[in-house]
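Anyone else keep sequences and structure tokens together like this?

Example one:
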Amino acid sequence: MKASTYRVAWLSSLLLVLLAGCSSSGMQDLRQYIEQVKSRAPGRIKPLPEVQPIETFVYNPGGRRDPFKPAEQTTTQALPAPGSGIAPDPMRRKEELESYPLDSLRMVGTLDKRGTKWALITTQDGTIYRVKEGNHMGQNNGRITRITEDRVELTEIVPDGAGGYRERQAVVALSE
């Protein structure tokens, strides 16, 4: 016999087994249960609770400022002029970990190789990266300034709200 004949015989026996499983025997108890459930009297649905009206509140400032308007600055602060001082370098090539938010990165360990301390950082997808002081990570131009056994310290450059930038310290701690 050829291999195709064996295949046809095997497929036809499989088809017979599947059709035998579709027979109607053993379904009577299911049909009885369905009829029993259908014959039950419908239950009552509880009425919805009555909606209580909410009292309106009128804000009386009584000499205080309106919370929905910006506060007026009473003191003039010496803010750096936009474009002077601290700013991110737009020409610097971005590193891989700068595409992740800082709170999604986790420190999982450290390495010391030839006197250089490296931190092991993992992303949410499980990829582990090796970074050292001077590398960048996070979406706010974070530059690694220090690596210890239990954390990575960074200096981020963030907008100050007045058209300039300021430095902010951040930490990625060792995960448990």
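And example two:
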Amino acid sequence: MAEHFTNEEIVARGKQAVMNTYGRLPLALVRGEGSWVWDADEKQYLDFVTGLAVNSLGYSHPAVTAAITQAAHQIVHASNLYWIPNQVRLAEKLTAHSFAAKVFFCNSGAEANEAAIKLARKQAKQNYGEDKYRIVSLSHSFHGRTLAALTATGQTKYQAGYEPLPEGFLYAQLNDIASLEQCVGEQTAAVIIEPIQGEGGVNPASPEFLQAAREVCDRYGALLVFDEVQCGMGRTGKLFAYEWSGVEPDLMTLAKALGGGVPIGALLAAEKAASTFQPGDHASTFGGNPLATAAGNAVIDEMLRPGFLRHVQEMSAVLRAGLDDLAKKYFLDGRVRGEGLILGLPVGDKGPQVVQECQESGLLINCVGGQVLRFLPPLNVSKQEIQLALTLLEQAFLKVIV
């Protein structure tokens, strides 16, 4: 029988043995089912964080569990020195339902963005010469913690202490077309954009801005990269967030929800860029292994099931309406923003207190930028669960905001 420890015991042991790189809440989640999780003290929570948009089918989803179990019985890992059937199947599904022609698999969103940056620079040098290497991203963006992805991240608080950063990165302002056009030029290899900035405060890019990005990239022979690590894989109510705008990128990065909880990342590339990488140019030991891609196939099959994405849109309408009502009732200045089931509600500097009160009452949410409550429920969340979350959120508002 496995040892049992309380939250307090796990926290104490963790502080001794685990590097202090996270501002963790003092609880340890030990099991989950559907939209619910339990901590080591057996307290139950309605989870509207879902592992930061990872567990988009909730916990213990039968299809994902069955796929992982079958892979564990067959073959957990095989090197990319050989063909991996699950990987091929997942790549076929991703390309069949997107703009892309080919897929490179890795283990995380940061790795996917790192691959995108490398591919963009290699493609630019091959076709235009050594001086074409600049990467344009956006202020308040977040693209990961590896050194190049961190440099592409337009938030200095994440970069402090890691200088000198790689050169060649510029930052435009979200939804400011003039700012974007000022940054992009003959030396630009790529422009990387999150269709919805998650860590930056749930800030959507307008269709007009994305179209302008497409046009300026075409003008200067740069690749347009969409980072859909957080907002992709059904989160917005379409399989990919770019579908709302009608603007297709040249590259797209995925991770988080793609594996339903199993680590996996992917770089999707259109035909004109896909051939840039050749054997030896880039690799990942664990990327796209049999276990991870078995989970990925189960996830995308569920999301492509008739009615799934319509359910996301319907639940989004319920959650957005409830949040709008609370914003008006409690005289909050900011409006609800986002798409599908990635929604943000600005509440000022009391955001962390609201998160704490919600946790104590059994609702898990989080706060980005210290002021914006972010809601990332499972995509198969029920209307009743959303209504319960809104009730618990209002109880927190009554204690903190009134």
